[in-house]
Amino acid sequence: MTTVVMAPDSFKGTISAAEAARALADGWRRIDPAAVILSRPMADGGEGTVDAFVTAVPGAQRMPIAVDGPAGTPTDTSWLLLPPTPDSPAGTAVIDIGSTSGIEMLDELRPWDADTSGFGQAIVAALDHGVSRLVLGIGSSASTDGGAGLLSVLGARFLDESGAPVAPGARGLLDVAAVDLTGLRPIPDAVVLTDVTNPLTGDRGAAAVFGPQKGFAADADIRRLDRSLARLAGLIGVDPSLPGAGAAGGAGAALMRCGARIEPGAAEVSRLIGLADSVTGADVVITGEGSYDGQSGDGKVPSYVAGIAAAAGARAAVVAGRIAPEADTGLFAAAVSLTDLAGSAEESLGEPARWLRAAGADLARRL
């Protein structure tokens, strides 16, 4: 009897990690109905982080909340409450920026005005509930506000030269002359999940690298924003060169100021959902993501899961929407591109669950 662990990341913008794992399992069972299949959807701090914990942690409970989304309008979402443990006697809150202040929540980009207030509101809701620990996923953010939005919700005040509050978002950062942190609410033990190691400023900083993704088109605007982020770092007392400070448009730096520690997202999610224990004794481990390319070996979910599988003596396979020519698939016993299976990217994107089932069946035949 074959034991298979399904541990994909989300296929960004098309299907969640949990749904992908389910589709892969359905496909495998078509060929090998007697297989023991364990679903352990993965994440690296971005889209699907909450879903990974819902699937893997018994007793996890979604806590509904309304927040001010990145478009500035009320949005219904939730954070996740994990049951108490000896290390977290009042429970752990899992909150991701993607479902509270995420770029996928926008119909059109708002580079100057989107902010992280909704993320901060979810953090406050969890603190008000009394949790002992926070797990914060900060992938897929919509803004480059340096975390000013979330810090404002936690009690910080961002003021211009006249002492008046500045506007939300990156627009307000241009005018920040002083920051009052005397009312900043303390947070308990907090870990920040991200696969980004960029500093806050400079050529690899939040403005230069991620600004264009948020909608900044002009080089002059990116330079202005970079200078504003540097000034903000000085005002809140964070070293802008720290790895991860530039994650989520500078939200990483803001959370550092609150005492949170930055951790590699895939490794921490793996630890928290007990992936290594699930893989022990497995024959095959299947992982995946939307695009497997030259960056996928740099701490992303597929490469991390492949390492877990190798340590347990299991064969690993990767399934991706597309596999780039330069991608290193040497870690895997098999690699499947949904684009190749479907015949085109349009077909695979249109029906991802269908082609993931096909991929699961293909791997069952081959492995």
Automatic annotation (TrEMBL):
Domain of life per record: Bacteria
Q: Which organism is it from?
A: Microbacterium tenebrionis
Q: Which UniProt keywords apply?
A: Kinase, Transferase
- Pfam family, any one: Gly_kinase
Q: InterPro entries given for it?
A: Glyc_kinase_flavodox-like_fold, Glycerate_kinase, Glycerate_kinase_RE-like, Glycerate_kinase_sf
Which first-to-last residue range defines the signal peptide?
Answer: none
Which family is this sequence assigned to? Belongs to the glycerate kinase type-1 family.
Which protein, by its recorded name, is this?
A: Glycerate kinase
Gene3D superfamilies, per the entry: Glycerate kinase, domain 1 (3.40.50.10350), Glycerate kinase, domain 2 (3.90.1510.10)
